[in-house]
Each structure stands twice: as C-alpha cells, then as structure tokens.
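hey so u asked for the seq, here:
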Amino acid sequence: MTGQSPLMSSDAATTLIVIPARMQATRLPNKPMADVHGAPMIVHVWRRALAAGCGRVLVATDSSEIVSAIRAAGGDAIMTSADHPSGSDRIFEAVSIVDPDRSASIVVNLQGDLPTLDPHLVAACIAPLANASTDIATLAAIITEPSERTNPNVVKVVGSPLGPDRLRALYFTRATAPSGDGVLYHHIGIYAYRRQALERFVALPPSVLEVREKLEQLRALEANMRIDVAIVDTVPLGVDTPADLDRARRLLSI
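ran it, structure tokens below
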C-alpha cells in the first residue's frame, strides 16, 4: 500500500494524522520495529491509519530506522527531537515542520502500538470536533470485563452524556469511577485536536492531577479545555509486552 488513500474526501485535506514512535520502550525493546508477519509493527499501524481515509498520515520519530521502514513501505515519516517528554510534544514538532502554512486544522494523535486498529476508529475520533465548542476529541468503550473495572492500567473516563454515543469528559482516572450502579467507560488513547488546541496544550506546564494520575489529558481539563468522547464498540489492542505482541500476531493471522 503506497501513497494516500483514494477514499479520502475533500475534507481530509484539513486533517493530519500523526503517529508518534520511539524505540525506548522498556517492556518491549525496539517495539515499533517488532516483526508482525514480515513487516514492522509501525508499518501495520501506518497502513491502518491510511486505510481510514481521513487525511495525510505522517510518522514522527527520533529513529532513523523507523523513518527508513516507513519510507520503504511508501509512507511519510519525519525525524523529530529525541528529547520530547510526550507523544503530544513530538506530534506538535512534526506538524510545525510539515505544515508551516497551517493548512491542517485538525491533528490526530494516533498511538504507534495499535497494529490491529480498526480504521473506522480514526473517523469516530474526529467526529466530535463537528461541535465548534469542542477542543479535543477522543474515544471510549463500555467496560464489559469485570476485572477491568478495578484494573489501574485501564483508564476510565467519567463524563456527562451528550447523546447515546457521546460524552463530555469531566475526568479521567485509573481508579474505579464513578461509583454506584451503571456502566464504566474504558478510555481509548487516540486524540483529535483542533490545531489551536494542540498549540495551547503543549504550551501548558504539567498539571497537578496529570502528575498524580500520570494521565496527560488531565492537563487539558484542568486548563478548562473541552474534551468530548465518542463511544465505540471496540477497544484496539495496545502492544506493550511480548505477550501483547504474540496476541497481535495471532489476531492479524486470522
């Protein structure tokens, strides 16, 4: 698969999908380059993003090896600083380099460890930005596995309903919340930013709750930025460990 998807609409010209990737993962060293059926994992993620047909797809990395792999697959990749504290900072640098004229009004931060991503999730994430009051959009799914309700590695979003499949985020937490009867929502770490919201976000210092919960998105909420959440019916597999990698290989062999 090379070039950009023929499925793109004219609206996609204003959207830039950026996949931040680095090689320093401790639980799975050299994770982006892990082989998945003959291609590096980061190439699988790039292909899924391209298949979404929502905009230009760019990989932002501090690794020449990743750049070479993406370009060999026909993709677009750019070198960024090795000193970024977060993926948001990395995508901001990449966007500033490749789009100095600010033609992109929406920037999607798509994690580089989602090789089984359903491409339709990219469009689902962008959809809440149709509301002009929304600064940032993201995704969540109803938790159906009981053990996930108390698992601190499963981030929950607490929000006010805006409709049957939409929330306005009030808080994100690793705790079991909210209490009482009712559904809990598993936050999916894909974000769509308005260009100006991304610029504001990366200029803010880490917030108190962000540091305490180790959840970057709380910085935006503490700064009174609005985050809306689209409710979807699938959670993509994030690859963080060798066991996750084995599972991704099995899923992609079906």
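Residues 1-10 have pLDDT under 50 and may be disordered. The radius of gyration is 17 Å.
lmk if thats what u needed
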